[in-house]
Amino acid sequence: MAEEFTPGPLDREATTYVAGHRGLVGSAIARRLEAEGFSDVIGRQSDELDLRERSDVSDFFADTKPRYVVLAAAKVGGILANNTYPVDFLSDNLRIQTNVMDAALEHGTERLLFLGSSCIYPQLAPQPIIEDSLLTGHLEPTNDAYAIAKIAGILGVQAVRRQYGRSWISAMPTNLYGPGDNFSPMGSHVLPALIRRYDEAVASGAESVTNWGTGTPRREFLHVDDMAAACLHLLEHYDGSEQVNVGTGRDTTIKEIASLIADVVGYEGRTEWDTSKPDGTPQKLLDVSKLRAAGWEAKIGMREGLESTVTWYRAHAGDLREAG
User: Fold this and answer.
1) Is the pLDDT score of 187 beyond 90?
2) Fewest beta carbons within 10 Å, which of 17, 155, 163, 202?
3) Reported pTM
4) 167 with 111: CB under 8 angstroms?
5) Per-residue pLDDT for 323 more than 50?
6) How do residues 96-141 score in pLDDT, each as one tens digit?
């Protein structure tokens, strides 16, 4: 059995592997770790290390022997992709998670943080969603395969804790946004899609912008740099088998978000709403009481976060991902 984890600062000189270090979340976590003095943060691009290949992952861990691991790598996509390719989302994510966790277990990783998604919770979970809602109802059908894979990751962490005594943990973020997001027309989520739409309207001089639905659904958004700060805080201060919700504990309507984005990008035209299009779930808000009890709260305000995201988007508009 492993030694019991004592909350406190992690060893800044230890090898720390961020799986998925080029993605929205992983890149933010790598930046945060380096800013906090971690001197041996490592990552591998997918063309260097395919996490779906078990022997390759095992060899990588045998060579590097990371003391700490943040498992942020995953096959991700929007509703259309999840609904169209459920086999890919289930198989790829199960293999990524299992290979990394098995290799980490075999080669002595002391602390591992597994990152999931709020889609693990039942479609009709009471709001705000508490961690105990897991496995209490049916999942959202359009992304149930992805959700099942993430639930398996949580159970994988719990199994390692139970069988081997390793102080591994899981965190479930709300909707994330920020520098490095996917702004592609087909693959982006609601917030980056709105940023692109309004910014292009400014550039073209469009008199109006049309958004889907009524604008009344409420959503919670967390800046990815806050997410990264929360991950390091949990690694240093939390030890428990239950996943921890990571969010702001506050939500806002899509209409309010759209208005704020229009203001940030400098769009002065009309916003219209196509009410023939679906709204989606009326509300999706995480209960973050456990996170607050661990001593952390979000710090980046919505306007501040949007301004930094718009700045990044404009600086990278020429080389953004166009695929889903």
Assistant:
1) no
2) 163
3) 0.93
4) yes
5) no
6) 999 999 999 999 999 999 999 999 999 999 999 999 999 999 998 8
Angle at 248 between CA 247 and CA 252, to 5 degrees: 110
Instruction: Determine phi and psi for 199, rounding to 5 degrees.
Output: -65, -40
Which of 68, 121, 146, 177 is an active site residue? 146
- Tokens describing residue 254: 């899509």
Compute φ and ψ for 211, nearest 5 degrees.
-110, 155
Where does the chain have alpha helices with state H?
Answer: 24-35, 54-64, 79-84, 86-106, 144-164, 190-204, 224-237, 254-265, 289-293, 302-315
What pLDDT digit, counting tens, does each position of 275-314 carry? 998 887 888 999 999 999 999 999 999 999 999 999 999 9
Long-range CB contact pairs, 59-66, < 8 A, 24+:
60/103, 61/103, 61/104, 61/106, 61/107, 61/109, 62/103, 62/107, 64/15, 64/17, 65/15, 65/107, 65/108, 66/14, 66/15, 66/16, 66/17, 66/42, 66/104, 66/107, 66/109
φ, ψ of residue 252 to 5 degrees: the values are -150, 160
- Which DSSP letter does residue 317 get? G
| Per-residue CA distances from 321 to 155, 316, 317 (Å) | 33, 10, 9
Asked if pLDDT for residue 324 goes beyond 70, the answer is: no
Rounded CA-CA distance 222/243 in Å is: 17
Pair 129, 245: CB distance under 8 Å: yes
Which of these, 114, 111, 116, lies nearest to 166 by C-alpha position? 111
- Report the C-alpha gap between 147 and 116 in whole angstroms: 8
- Domains of the chain and CATH, by start: 16-178+220-250+285-300 (3.40.50.720), 190-217+252-282+312-318 (3.90.25.10)
Which tokens belong to 161?
Answer: 């804790």
